[in-house]
Specification:
Layout: H1 4-12, H2 14-37, H3 41-44, H4 50-57, H5 61-80, H6 82-89, H7 91-108, H8 115-144, H9 148-177, H10 179-184, H11 187-199, H12 219-248, H13 253-277, H14 285-304, H15 310-333, H16 339-357, H17 359-371, H18 375-387, H19 389-392, H20 397-404
Amino acid sequence: MTSTAETATRAADPSERREGERPGRGLALAVILLIAFNLRPAMAGLGPLLDLVERAADLTSAQAGLLTTLPIFLMGLGAFAGGRLRRLLGAKRGVALAITLIALACASRWVWNDAAGMFASAAGAGLGVAAVQALLPGVIKARFGAGVGRAMGLYTTAIMGGAAFAAATAAGLARVIGWQAALALWSLPALLAAAAWTALRFPPETAKAAAGEAFWRNGRAWTLMLFFGIGTGAFTLVLAWLPPYYMSLDESRQASGFWLAGVIVAEVAASLAVSAFINRFPDRRGPLIAALLGVAAGLACLVAAPIALAAPAALLLGLGLGALFPLSLIVTLDHVDDPARAGDLAAFVQGGGYVVASSTPFIAGAIRDRFADLSGAWAAMAVIILLSVAIAARFSPSSYRRSRG
């Protein structure tokens, strides 16, 4: 029989407590990853089918670009309300409502798929994704503590995995069941995620309300926002326009969708690598700059020789963007120790960042309408990515402490 002293010693031992918490943490992580898997298909599934949607809904290229721009923009605006949403509803109820909204937005595309319906579903999906992305980082910070970097890496990997699967299967599903049903099908895993999240036991402390903080007064918060917006802008540009770009170069719809899926598969690999190795880099600047240079090189391949260098372009873009997304969130969470404040900072950074990023698909669509080519959009983004290396160089660990003041 275990003595009282031994029991007390074990209770006081953090490693013992962590061991006992692992099953609960593992289940929570699995549900979080299932939710994350549903955060991009409403947008990623559109790229390979965009020309079909354009014709069916009678849209210009700029208007078609808005189908990606609108949810990204609303994701930004909605993220600003993350702190209020957490204090009003709590993280559990807020995420449950948000993932249900994503499911309804996807389902509506089966029957309401004219121009008004497509824009309405894009708006609904964007708002749902915004709420999830504003609330979950604080939950992850509270649940996983020192392991937040690895957990955030897996979270972003699941986001990219959902995008990759949607992009790779869109053309084949559309050929079999029609593009409307192919887009609506994504309501099913979203509903499954909502049910799993609702059934999850949720510690009260992760949903406690806390006073909001005016991060708009903090210069580093604005820098983090701009940096996140640039990286996400590059991702949304590729997500929206890579398949139409290759179709304009006489590649098939299936091949064009697979190039996008190839980018996202490489993103998944890079995000997994970040999850596995990020704890070895307490100074995040090296990985950040390497990721930025990879994205710039991939964009340069699209401009110089998009057909001959299609595989290197997909690989470089995927590895760079796949590392950049989780690293941007991890370096944001590095700045704040308290989970509630970290969630609020992540909401602020994502809010402004997604508003910045939302402009890229629309601008690229306007460029395509004007010049019948997207090379200028790729080149401009490459220059912006290279300039953002100077921003990444400022994120030294010592600067985290200074910015907290």
